[in-house]
Design goal:
About 50% of the residues lie in helices and about 15% in strands. Strands 1, 2, 3, 4, 5, 6, 7 and 8 form an 8-stranded mixed β-sheet that branches. The protein has 10 helices and 8 strands. The chain is α+β, with helices and mostly antiparallel strands. The protein folds into 3 domains: about 100 residues, Butyryl-Coa Dehydrogenase, subunit A, domain 1 (Orthogonal Bundle), CATH 1.10.540; about 110 residues, Beta Barrel (Butyryl-CoA Dehydrogenase, subunit A, domain 2); about 150 residues, Butyryl-CoA Dehydrogenase, subunit A, domain 3 (Up-down Bundle). Helix 4 packs antiparallel against helix 5, helix 6 packs parallel to helix 8 and helix 8 runs antiparallel to helix 10. Bound molecules: flavin-adenine dinucleotide. Flavin-adenine dinucleotide binds next to strand 1, strand 3, helix 9 and helix 10. Its cofactor is FAD. Keywords: FAD, Flavoprotein, Oxidoreductase. This is Acyl-CoA dehydrogenase. It holds the Pfam family Acyl-CoA_dh_M. Belongs to the acyl-CoA dehydrogenase family.
Amino acid sequence: MPPTIESEEQKALRTAVSTLGKRHGRDFTTPELWTEAGKLGYLGVNLPEAYGGGGGGVSELSIVLEELGAAGCPLLMLVVSPAICGTIIARFGTDAQKQHWLPALADGTRIMAFGITEPDAGSNSHRITTTARKDETGDWILNGRKVFISGVDIADATLIVGRTEDARTGSLKPCLFIVPRDTPGFERRQIDMELNAAEKQFELTLDDVRLPADALVGDENAGLLQLFAGLNPERIMTAAFAIGMGRYAISKAVEYARDRTVWNSPIGAHQAIAHPLAQSHIELELARLMMQKAAHLYDTGDDAGAGEAANMAKYAAGEACVRAVDQAVQTLGGNGLTKEFGLASLITAARVSRIAPVSREMILNYVSHQTLGLPKSY
Ligand SMILES: Cc1cc2nc3c(=O)[nH]c(=O)nc-3n(C[C@H](O)[C@H](O)[C@H](O)COP(=O)(O)OP(=O)(O)OC[C@H]3O[C@@H](n4cnc5c(N)ncnc54)[C@H](O)[C@@H]3O)c2cc1C
């Protein structure tokens, strides 16, 4: 680890993004904030300098998302566009793919969504059946279905995880394809979610979607390595999303509990209100420490070490966020459920970090099997 947990540059980034976030606040509009953050270089802090990025890593990008979330204005697509798609293209894309995508993902003028989840596979990604077939012209033909894919409507393209036809059985040999939004046969249907967010989720159908040979990112036989190069940053970024939201909720609750007086002293003086808030603050800090460890391992090239830490960070942050939001709502009493105070809608939003991109239960499975060496039930 570096001598201090965060470098002076990282601390300065935290302060600068926090200032931007506070200026936009809870009433933010996503496209406006996205554009401004892009111009300031925050969306691409993790991408290579040679392609218009900031030359940092997921450590820096997670700071951006956490601070925006803590100010009440998280940008969900940061988890996907620069973190998953940008990383995979930067690490495994051709020079032409890098030239075409990275500068635009970095300045925010283009957005890329990411689709792995399928209706009949869910948590078991090994069961995905979206299939890519190469025809005699060298084009790829994709067929399949995806579900819960975020931001497909605002994304210029979606990075779709498929498998090659001859790898239909056995363990997953994933292949990654850039599918532009208006490609014939690529249809989307918005899912009606109980989420108060600008980013929508979609069910996708790919019906004989024809793509040129250069739509494939990386090697079709590379296996899981390329996929996890994107999925570990996704987990770290989901932790940042959760920590930011948890911090926002706790800050609103603390503000309220300092003033609200219904007996002789403010409600914050009652330990039944104060202690759970203090506990949440500690849990969020601990989750951030794990997130920083995961980001540090990933940024220094330890993909295997980062995998375990990213899972643990996502777990810790999701749990801390759910508890923080729950306690914040309780602290406000009836006002916790009003639109004016805006905390109730965070109850469902917080649950996202417990379910996606990998559920709490699947992380516990991972730690049981991979870390503790316990036998598998499935
Ligand atoms: C708001 C939101 C945005 C999303 N955005 C994207 C996106 O952009 N791209 C994308 O690809 N996906 C996205 N997802 C999908 C998300 O990654 C999945 O919902 C998640 O992986 C869980 O899959 P599932 O919903 O099919 O649940 P299932 O796999 O059906 O699981 C249901 C429940 O069973 C439990 N379970 C399953 N198997 C086991 C087991 N072996 N042991 C113990 N418990 C088990 C799970 O933990 C869960 O609690 C998004 C989801 C949401 C809610």
